[in-house]
Design brief:
binds NADP nicotinamide-adenine-dinucleotide phosphate, 12 strands, 10 helices, alpha/beta, single chain, Rossmann fold, six-stranded parallel beta sheet, 16% strand, 308 residues
Length: 308
């Protein structure tokens, strides 16, 4: 491989895509693309993109992530989350490039009482989960050099996410009801990008042996777990301190009282054991990672010279 690897980042404007651009800065030549440049729902465009760029590494952070809307847009969700990853894997194989792809805790049905491990049987409850599972399976069928990172409850300083929704709602309302019977691990885009770089760098540097030894599927989330209610409580405690935001009154709510088009798993906590054992990489605990994001937001408020 060349000294300076060429890194193609798809989904560059998304939560994870933006952080990947930051964390891979200086690692190689970055070609960042988003929907405005290439529509991954279009197989020909996807193939042509890779053939034109000839990357050594493809970081695929693009996805159809609208979980509820996917229930009525199955074909589009499948095209972006299942067909596009297959094409990226085929093209990566042709170039002997590394494909890094993200998947989701929503491939599981949520019924297990313990954290899910990579060998547990998936059983998605919604179309988004089905489409992401199909993407994982497509990449595994194609083979080659690939890393699939299943993550969960992703949020960060920008984009559409639970944290930013909570902060907006707190400015509009005095009281909020939040679901308290779904368990998961809130994971920041910052931690995901940092861990992705650490693993990618190690793999390309030959630190982890041959592709046969490291290619595969890994869970990658911040450590420890909570419910959406617990996450919201921590957000408002942190936001009161860091952003001087008046916390709303929070009421725990049952999933059955908050109907959504897509069903969600009750327990989607993932075990990160395999990631740690194979690569020695561990993400921060979700509370520390949340504080990092609140610090970023606080710095943004200060630099814009106002209060948010
Ligand atoms: N968000 C979560 O809670 C969560 C949880 C588990 C796993 N994940 C996985 O983590 C990865 C990153 O997610 P994220 O939270 O960063 O998602 P995100 O913020 O929604 O970003 C996804 C990006 O993909 C782009 N995209 C969508 N359709 C496209 C298309 N047809 N062609 C090209 N680009 C397209 C989007 O562009 P537009 O914005 O212009 O549509 C967006 O920039 C995904 O694989 C996701 O499935 C996310």
């Amino acid at each position: 491989m060349t000294e300076q690897p060429c890194i193609l980042i798809a989904g560059a404007a998304g939560q994870v895509g933006v952080e990947l651009q930051r964390s891979f800065a200086g690692f190689g030549k970055i070609v960042a693309v988003d929907l405005e440049t290439v529509d991954l729902a279009n197989a020909d465009q996807t193939r042509a993109l890779v053939r034109r760029v000839q990357p050594n590494v493809i970081l695929n952070a693009a996805a159809y992530t609208a979980v509820d809307r996917a229930e009525s847009q199955r074909d589009l969700a499948m095209a972006i989350n299942a067909t596009a990853p297959r094409i990226l894997a085929e093209e990566a194989l042709r170039l002997d490039a590394l494909l890094v792809h993200y998947s989701t805790d929503y491939v599981f049905n949520g019924e297990k009482q313990q954290p899910w491990v990579e060998t547990d049987e998936p059983g998605p409850l919604n179309v988004y989960g089905e489409s992401k599972l199909a993407g994982e399976q497509a990449i595994q069928q194609v083979g080659g050099r690939f890393l699939i990172f299943r993550t969960s409850w992703v949020y960060g300083p920008h984009g559409n996410n639970f944290l930013l929704t909570m902060l907006r709602l707190a400015r509009e309302r005095d009281r909020l009801s939040i679901v308290d019977d779904q368990f998961g691990s809130p994971t920041t885009s910052i931690e995901l990008a940092r861990a992705t770089r650490a693993v990618t760098e190690g793999v390309l540097g030959g630190q982890f042996g041959t592709p046969q030894e490291w290619s595969g599927l890994y869970h990658m989330t911040c450590a420890d777990s909570t419910t959406w209610f617990g996450f919201a409580k921590a957000i408002f405690a942190g936001a009161e301190e860091r952003l001087k935001l008046k916390p709303p009154e929070l009421t725990p709510q049952a999933t059955k009282d908050y109907p959504t088009p897509a069903k969600r798993p009750r327990n989607s906590v993932l075990s990160n054991r395999k990631l740690l054992d194979r690569f020695g990489v561990r993400l921060a605990g979700w509370r520390a990672a949340l504080d990092d994001v609140l610090q970023v937001l606080s710095a943004q408020v200060l630099s814009s010279g106002g209060t948010k």
